[in-house]
Write a structure and sequence with these properties.
The chain is α+β, with helices and mostly antiparallel strands. Among the domains are: 76 residues, RNA polymerase II/Efflux pump adaptor protein, barrel-sandwich hybrid domain (OB fold (Dihydrolipoamide Acetyltransferase, E2P)), CATH 2.40.50.100; 229 residues, Chloramphenicol Acetyltransferase (2-Layer Sandwich). The protein is 39% helix and 21% strand. It has 21 helices and 27 strands. The strands form 7 sheets. Strands 17, 20, 23, 24, 25, 26 and 27 form a 7-stranded mixed sheet that branches. Helix 2 runs antiparallel to helix 5. It is elongated and about 95 Å long.
Length: 657
């Protein structure tokens, strides 16, 4: 019995999502909670896991397709269901269904598939002609029917794409035969609240050959930076939106059709056998190789296309699990796996290459987690974060051992390449700017600062942190103590934990402490929310903060976790700042900033010795509040309560152990 995989509710205000990438292909085995696909909404990009273990039988939502919450994305069941389904499909006699049967026969007959791959490993397009025209192979029928489509290799590598897009196949075939049909590339809906996007970079030029799903351009919105793929195979005839131009959703970005060579090849495919189609593929491979050798740096996509074509000659005696990867490598889609161990030989999108260059990440050192080992954006970001942590750890160890060694680490700070440049603000930066100015305009903000002695907490932390990390799985920093003291004080002063609706003329005092924690990410500042933080202990807050921060930086945070906050905590001290005057996150009425903890000489009052000077661990806490609701005395009382809670340091019971 097949199980349906549906689009789950990804947030309170999210009603739909766009399939950005399938991480599994039809016929792949999946485990429970294993990632199946990536979905993008107006809030976040996230992965959809498999609800059950089994075989991916059918994909019902293609990449770049926008579906509503609850819509069926795929079917998962047993292999027996898959084989019976392919038999029923073949009895219908449809071209797309035959393609599905081909994939199933490839899965069940690994020896035959391996033989075919070995035969095709001689390296040129003529071996494809022999393979596709061999009557003894099960794959011959769908290859013959679909050979007229320029995207036939892609359909062979992904049966679900052939099943779900018969209209595109027919359109491509008819365009190939008459040589005059073209397809418009439009800006897709990238989220519920996203109405426009800015073209940041064209990855193809007019006259370039493109394959189905090959990236054409990069687009930036206020939520996400993404690539727009080609919906059809053909030649890029016209670019209608220039770089740095902002266009609305649905606007035409480019036109793709058949060029002079493409129309002739299409006519040949419509009238000749599979050998004609293979010859056309060979000519395209030669064009791609020539383009690569003549201008490899200016056209990285052409370089990857040439590698994809030559990859077919490297598939020597692959195991059956890699047969589908070998078929996918013949296209310019998401995998491009050459079957080698070197990740640099796999297809890597220009966006990922640019990201790797920005973070000084060697692609050859990464193991991709995408389809067929494809290196994804998340792989690069995780590698960059790991490198930062390793560098920080080495720097700390070196500084502890000797000061001369610490000075040797300084040359890593080099001048930025942005010096002397003028660039357009990203959409996200523009949105942040607008919201910050709006917050200052609609509320009367001012900041109150207190100084807190956290020496007792520092000693308690030093005593408990080793056992705490072993027991809870996260490090014990000062931040959970600040969060605990703040949410406890919010229960006493509800006017600090409130929201104002100026249009309705009302104020809402919230019955729960939903703590937003500001997180610095590559995309910009995001504020995930810890719901009901007032009910959590120090350990619970520490786990929540670590989890939310990690998933936010990895772009795996859920949309509903970025909304609903009633009070915000921002740790500006993590970068060494003594204190800050943070801006309120509307419609909240207050935000607490925590500075860095430093040792300072402080005047102390001792009952026996009188006033003395001692070295203490000190920190500044700054509260920005909305004076429309919160008076200065209220803010001072709130901060005094937080200060007393921290200096008393009665947290032993909550640390456990």
């Amino acid at each position: 019995m097949a199980t349906e995989v549906t689009l789950p509710a990804l947030g309170e205000s999210v009603t739909e999502g766009t399939v950005t990438q399938w991480l599994k292909s039809v016929g792949d085995e999946v485990a429970v909670d294993e990632a199946l696909l990536e979905v993008s909404t107006d809030k976040v990009d996230t992965e959809i896991p498999s609800p059950v273990a089994g075989t991916l039988l059918e994909i019902k939502a293609d990449e770049d397709e926008t579906v509503e919450v609850g819509a069926v994305l795929a079917l998962i069941g047993d292999k027996d269901d898959s084989e019976s389904g392919s038999g029923e499909s073949s009895s219908d006699g449809g071209t797309a269904e035959e393609g599905g049967q081909s994939d199933e026969s490839t899965d069940s007959g690994s020896d035959d598939s391996s033989t075919d791959d070995s035969d095709s490993g001689s390296g040129d397009a003529e071996s494809h002609t022999e393979q596709s025209s061999e009557p003894s192979q099960d794959e011959d029928s769908p290859q013959t029917d679909e050979g007229a489509d320029d995207s036939a290799p892609s359909e062979q590598s992904d049966a679900a794409q052939a099943d779900a897009q018969p209209a595109n196949d027919d359109r491509s075939e008819s365009g190939g035969s008459d040589g005059g049909e073209s397809s418009e590339v439009t800006l897709p809906a990238l989220g519920e609240s996203v109405t426009e996007g800015t073209v940041t970079q064209w990855l193809k030029s007019v006259g370039d050959e493109v394959a189905v799903d090959e990236p054409l351009l990069e687009v930036s919105t206020d939520k996400v930076d993404t690539e727009i793929p080609s919906p059809v195979a053909g030649t890029l005839l016209e670019i209608r939106a220039e770089e740095d131009e902002t266009v609305e959703v649905g606007a035409v970005l480019a036109v793709i059709g058949s060029g002079d060579g493409g129309s002739g090849g299409g006519a040949a495919q419509a009238t000749q056998s599979d050998s004609g189609a293979s010859s056309a593929d060979a000519s395209e491979a030669e064009k791609s190789a020539d383009s690569d050798s003549s201008d490899a740096e200016d056209q990285p996509s052409s370089e990857e296309a040439a590698r994809d074509q030559s990859a077919e000659g490297d598939q020597d005696a692959q195991p059956s699990g890699a047969d589908q990867d070998a078929a996918q490598a013949a296209t310019s889609t998401s995998t491009g796996d050459s079957g080698g161990d070197n990740a640099s030989e796999s297809y890597v999108t220009p966006l990922v290459r640019k990201l790797a260059a920005q973070h000084n990440v060697e692609l050859s050192s990464l193991t991709g987690t995408g389809v067929g080992g494809r290196i994804r954006k998340q792989d690069v970001l995780e590698a960059a974060e790991a490198a930062k942590q390793q560098a920080a750890q080495q720097s700390t160890e070196t500084a502890a051992s000797s000061s001369p060694a610490a000075s040797e680490a300084q040359p890593e700070q080099v001048a930025s390449s942005l010096r002397g440049k003028t660039e357009k603000l990203s959409r996200l930066r523009q949105v942040i700017a607008a919201r910050m100015v709006e917050s200052l305009q609609i509320s009367a903000q001012l900041t109150t600062v207190v100084e807190v002695d956290v020496t007792a907490i520092s000693r308690l932390r030093d005593k408990a942190k080793a056992g705490f990390e072993q027991r809870e799985g996260v490090k014990l920093s000062f931040l959970p103590f600040f969060a605990k003291a703040a949410v406890d004080a919010l229960k006493i002063y509800p006017q600090v934990n409130a929201s104002i609706d100026t249009e309705a003329g009302t104020v809402t005092y919230h019955d729960g402490e939903h703590l937003g924690v500001a997180v610095d990410t590559e995309r910009g500042l995001l504020v995930p929310v810890i719901s009901d933080a007032g009910d959590l202990s120090i350990a619970g807050l520490a786990r929540k903060i670590a989890d939310l921060a990690a998933r936010t930086r990895d772009n795996k945070i859920k949309p509903d976790e970025l909304s609903g906050g009633t009070f915000t905590l921002t740790n500006t001290g993590s970068r060494g700042a003594l204190f800050d005057t943070p801006i309120i996150n509307q419609p909240q009425v207050a935000i607490l900033g925590t500075g860095t903890v430093v040792k300072r000489p402080v005047v102390l009052s001792d009952p026996n010795l009188g006033e003395t000077i001692g070295i203490r661990q000190m920190v500044y806490l700054s509260l920005t509040y909305d004076h429309r609701l919160v008076d200065g005395a209220d803010a001072a009382r709130f901060l005094s309560t937080v200060k007393s809670r921290l200096e008393e340091a009665n947290f032993e019971a909550e640390l456990g152990g």
